[in-house]
Amino acid sequence: MNCDNKKLLLYAVTDRFWLGSESLRSQVEKALEGGITFLQLREKELEENRFLQEAIVIKELCKRYHVPFVINDNVNIAMAMDADGVHVGQNDMEAVNVRQLIGPDKILGVSAQTVEQAVLAEKQGADYLGVGAVFPTGSKADAEDVSYETLKAICKAVTIPVIAIGGISKDNIMELAGSGICGIAVISAIFAQPDIVNATAELKELTKKMVIK
């Protein structure tokens, strides 16, 4: 599946840490209403069967809003419920192996922290790269920092789209202008907000400005 830059403008990653009394479905629907352009379902603790059931529900929601839907790490789940694709990190399955499993038509996203990792991921069949953490983040305690210079160098070294991730908020997003990224991936900047719809809409407008600066 072709992964165009517009679809990667505002990429939301789920995290049930922020659910409170809400359901994940409800939070995701609000984010879709607010204008996210891509969704990654990230579940590190959920039992496989529950993960699969949840993935099916979220996929249907995303379909209704014409938003691509990928699964974090779990290739088996992604294939079982026919997700639009998979996103893998550096410590997960090699991108080349994931591509062989999911075939040429599914989206493959890969996390990268260095130019070398980025170039290799593109060679191995990645459709886009998630680069970070560009700012300190609480969502991934083990995330290594990536400087603005490295982010820019990665964007220049590859031909596939690059999005930045890690600690991005409405307060620091403009610091990423001019780096060459086509969008941002966020968790708490959407899902930790009291008004998810408005927070998403505001972030989307800021991202549009940042990308064209």
UniProtKB/TrEMBL annotation:
Cofactors named for this entry: Mg(2+)
Binding site for 2-[(2R,5Z)-2-carboxy-4-methylthiazol-5(2H)-ylidene]ethyl phosphate: T137, G138, S139, G167, I187, S188
Gene Ontology annotations for the cellular component aspect, listed alphabetically: cytoplasm
Record-listed 4-amino-2-methyl-5-(diphosphooxymethyl)pyrimidine binding positions: Q40, L41, R42, E43, K44, N72, S111, K140
SUPFAM superfamilies in alphabetical order: Thiamin phosphate synthase
Entry's EC annotation: 2.5.1.3
GO biological process, one term: thiamine diphosphate biosynthetic process
Listed pathway(s): Cofactor biosynthesis; thiamine diphosphate biosynthesis; thiamine phosphate from 4-amino-2-methyl-5-diphosphomethylpyrimidine and 4-methyl-5-(2-phosphoethyl)-thiazole: step 1/1
Top enzyme category: transferase
UniProt-annotated binding residues for Mg(2+): D73, D92
Function field: Condenses 4-methyl-5-(beta-hydroxyethyl)thiazole monophosphate (THZ-P) and 2-methyl-4-amino-5-hydroxymethyl pyrimidine pyrophosphate (HMP-PP) to form thiamine monophosphate (TMP).
Protein's name according to its UniProt entry: Thiamine-phosphate synthase
Biological classification of the source: Bacteria, Bacillati, Bacillota, Clostridia, Lachnospirales
